[in-house]
Amino acid sequence: MPHLLDAIDAQLAPWFKARGQGAYRLGQVRRWLFGQRAGGFAEMTDLPQALREELAGAFALWSSEIARHTQAGDGTEKLLSTLADGGQIECVLLRDSEPSPGGRGRSGRRTICISTQVGCGMGCVFCASGLEGVTRNLTTGEIVEQMLRLQRLLSPEERLSHIVVMGMGEPLANLDALLPALAEASREDGLGISHRRITISTVGLPKAMRRLAEIDPRYRLAVSLHAPNDALRRQIVPVAEKISLAEILAEADHYFEHSGRQLTFEYVLLGGLNDSPANATELADRLAGRTAIVNVIPYNPVAGLPYRTPSLAAQRAFRQALEQRGVSVHFRHRKGDAIDAACGQLRRRSRVKSQESRVKS
Ligand code: SF4
Predict the structure, then answer these.
(1) Rg from Cα positions in the chain
(2) Burial 16-30 (b: 16+ CB within 10 A, else e)
């Protein structure tokens, strides 16, 4: 059965037309999906029951099953989904809470972090997602499905406000499926999230960065550096073997010229590896003259990997060294530690558990 979320308009418009139904039917379905957060065709009560039943027989709304749903005390929620072919992916809802005036629900930023591939081929040494390489790209429908599943976790008073494409996988390696999915996110009759509130993260693939700049530079771009020089970067990001920081920064500058959107550079701070004040100074010199924010993310340890969270003193010294050189720094505080919210950790834990149970049985 075709997955409706793969191409909602292109599938539904001719389907309704062939049944003599007006074009407004498509709008009704879209309102139920994106606005009313419907979980199935049966809930779309302003469509005739016979039509709802026919829709349910013609299209699959969901293509995955939730294997695990975890919640942390800070409001973070994470879903581990099993896809139709058995692959597993993760997506996360992050809440920056402010009590709402009437005391009902919570207001503030509601960000979702979504995946674009099963696994990841970039192999960053500190990351759980890349440990077993990449299995395949996600389809557009599988990406939209993560957004809708996460939106359904919100209370009626809450609204999605931001999307970060920073989950499992390298987003720019799957642009053909990602861009139509993000179009659904930004459409007024989709999730209605403006382009400037959608951030695509990349490890820095120059050709794909150029392609994004040419196709649609309205999104914010976050480029993961993790090191201030090529020698150190090669140790942390294996794809860096073939791609220099100079190439990546040149493409980042090109994207900025096209989009006018402030660039973000991501830097995972690994204790004893890339967290010295000298590393910070070198990074600041590299980025001099750019309108950019550096997002520093103190490492979230992954079971079985030898990397550690830097000490608070090291984090402070790193920040100070950047700020002294005029760099805008944002330390991203870890959310959802208790539920393995960092990319790929829940999936890894689930796979390790199933391997252990296979060994035991
Ligand atoms: S950090 Fe991102 S790019 Fe690197 S392996 Fe993990 S998912 Fe892939």
Answers:
(1) 21
(2) beeeebeeebbebbb
pLDDT category at 248 given cuts 50, 70, 90 is very high
| Helices then strands, each counted (H, E), the chain | 11, 14
- Closest to 335 (Cα-Cα) out of 69, 155, 92: 92
Single-letter code of the amino acid located at 278:
A
- Report the pLDDT value the prediction gives residue 361, as an integer from 0 to 100: 38
In this prediction, residue 344 carries a pLDDT of: 59
DSSP for 148-175, please give it: HHHHTTS-TT----EEEE-SSS-GGGGH
* Max Cα-Cα span within the chain: 69
Q: What is the pTM of this model?
A: 0.92
Helix (H) or strand (E) holding 93: strand 88-95
Ligand 1 cavity residues, CB under 6 Å = 120, 122-124, 127, 129-130, 168-170, 203, 343
Which residues are tagged catalytic?
Answer: 90, 343
- Torsion angle, alpha carbons of 146, 148, 153, 159, to 10: 120
Q: Out of 89, 117, 120, give the residue to mutate to test ligand 1, the one with the largest number of ligand atoms within 8 Å of its CB.
A: 120
Query: Angle formed by the axes of helices 277-287 and 245-259, to 10°?
Result: 50
CA 176 remoteness from chain centre: 16
